[in-house]
């Protein structure tokens, strides 16, 4: 994963499980926490095969450009500007990808998703 588009200008970096980065597992869970550094956008991205034990080992996590992770899973573009405290998951039951709140199971409406400036009707 050396080359990827800049979907979101100045998107920053996020912490990602190596299972998701290597595609051993599909991106499944997304949690936004307060930023830990200026470049950190606060997103934590995990795969469907990550266990608590796996995630407890910090060597299984890597800071990565958010756009690089969006190249792996384009659904992440839409959640970019969701607030700190967001706890979301990707659900794919064969009828297309949906983003839902983990705690409630409520589907996030499409109109709530971030649209990059280059993809906006007014831009």
Automatic annotation (TrEMBL):
Residues 14-98 form the Immunity protein Imm33 domain. It holds the Pfam family Imm33. It comes from the Bacteria. This is DUF2185 domain-containing protein.
């Amino acid at each position: 994963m050396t080359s990827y588009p800049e979907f979101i200008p100045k998107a920053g970096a996020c912490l990602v499980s190596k299972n998701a980065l290597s595609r051993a597992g599909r991106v499944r869970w997304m949690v936004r926490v307060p930023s830990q550094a200026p470049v950190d956008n606060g997103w934590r991205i995990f795969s469907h095969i990550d266990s608590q034990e796996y995630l407890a080992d910090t060597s299984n996590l890597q800071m990565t450009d958010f756009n690089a992770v969006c190249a792996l899973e384009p659904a992440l573009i839409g959640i970019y500007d969701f607030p700190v405290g967001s706890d979301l998951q990707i659900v794919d039951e064969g009828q297309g990808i949906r983003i839902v709140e983990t705690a409630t199971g409520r589907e996030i409406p499409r109109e709530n998703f971030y649209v990059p400036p280059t993809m906006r009707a007014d831009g």
